[in-house]
Specification:
The protein is an alpha/beta fold. The protein has 12 helices and 12 strands. The protein has an 8-stranded parallel barrel, surrounded by 7 helices. The protein has a two-stranded antiparallel ribbon with strand order 6-7.
């Protein structure tokens, strides 16, 4: 009879090609065709259902992001992931990303250790500094400390991950820890943690020095421009004494899959243009994406995963040749896309894309 911990270890050791999954930020945007906008409650229910479909169809991981705005449905990833855990059986569950600069690392560890116990050892964290900064004033932090907060918090989190009792710790931004019990402990020996990187060499080097995974967001353009970033991460990690097999790379990006590439482009363009119109508005910019601009973004040598299953396979494998990464995660539910289309995309990713990508990367 094997323990749960032994079963988890055996699963992780299996060489089945790269992991393939989904993530969502839970944006709440109007459907560009109807003008209607679903409620935050309905959005959350659909996210849980999407995770359930991903689990049932054999995808490897599902992630949820964090925003503190009325036009996003998710502000507390561990709460949403706990609900997903009760509706799934095997899929890994991660934040994507946790804004580590504005959350107490002790509370974060306890929340995800609890999630790990509830999910039988499926919890992970992708931590980042945050593309939006609304959480800083909301929780009483200054953006002047943007990087210093992240540095202190991730170093403390890694110590919490290793030690069930902190005999002594002192930092700048939170109260000291003295003979503090850190409870509960996760089912896994340690919670897997990745650092989300958007393009900063400093962030890549830091992830390497810490020996944590690196999740790279590649949303547009030629993905080859990110290869120096991946190389820097691995080089820095090895120089810091970390084993190369522990320096894992994940690629995340936007996507939409349909039976043909023409169908995918025709269906996705209104939603993708809509998505960037309200994201840019959140940043104080007003701009509309033309169809010609969209066509450039979706060309065969770009990072935007829009097309037929064959086109998506080609793009993932091209990136794997560049990066040799261990994980790919797509965001396919943006811009007010109806849930029916999201469900169809999950099925195509799981049944037509994932098997071939796993087979080819297993080689």
């Amino acid at each position: 009879m094997y323990s749960k911990r032994e079963v988890i270890a055996a699963m992780l050791e299996q060489n089945s090609g790269i992991e393939i999954g989904l993530y969502t930020l839970g944006d709440i945007g109007p459907d560009p065709h109807t003008g209607s906008t679903i409620s935050a409650g309905q959005r959350l229910k659909e996210i849980i259902e999407a995770a359930k479909l991903a689990d049932e169809s054999g995808l490897d991981i599902f992630g949820v992001g964090e925003h503190h705005r009325l036009d996003y449905a998710i502000s507390t990833p561990p709460v949403v992931l706990a609900a997903i855990a009760q509706n799934t059986k095997r899929i890994k569950l991660t934040s994507a990303t946790t804004v580590l600069s504005t959350i107490d690392p002790v509370r974060l560890f306890e929340d995800f250790a609890t999630l790990d116990l509830l999910s039988d050892g499926r919890a992970e964290i992708i931590a980042g500094r945050g593309a939006f900064v609304e959480s800083f004033p909301l929780f009483g932090y200054s953006t002047d400390d943007y990087d210093a907060l992240f540095s202190e918090n991730i170093e403390l989190f890694l110590k919490l991950n290793e030690n069930e009792r902190m005999s002594s710790w002192n930092g700048h931004f939170r109260s000291p820890l003295k003979d503090a019990e850190i409870a509960p402990r996760p089912l896994q020996k340690q919670l897997p943690i990745w650092v989300g990187v958007g393009g900063s060499p400093e962030s890549a080097a830091r992830a390497g020095r810490l020996g944590v995974g690196m999740a790279v967001a590649i949303l547009s353009g030629d993905p080859a421009r990110f290869k120096p970033l991946v190389d820097l991460y691995r080089q820095t990690g090895i120089e810091a004494g970390h084993a190369s097999e522990n320096l894992k790379v994940g690629v995340t990006g936007h996507g939409y899959i349909a039976k043909t590439t023409k169908q995918a482009k025709d269906e996705f363009y209104p939603y993708y243009s809509n998505y960037w119109s309200y994201v840019n508005l959140q940043r104080g910019m007003t701009s509309l994406m033309s169809r010609a601009e969209f066509e450039q973004l979706t060309e065969a040598d770009t990072a935007l995963f829009v097309g037929s299953p064959e086109q998506i396979i080609e793009k993932i494998l091209r990136q794997h040749e560049l990066f040799g990464h261990q994980r790919f995660m797509a965001q396919i539910d943006i811009g007010g896309i109806p849930f029916k289309k999201i469900a169809e995309g999950i099925e195509l990713l799981a049944t037509e894309v994932a098997p071939i990508v796993r087979r080819e990367t297993r080689k």
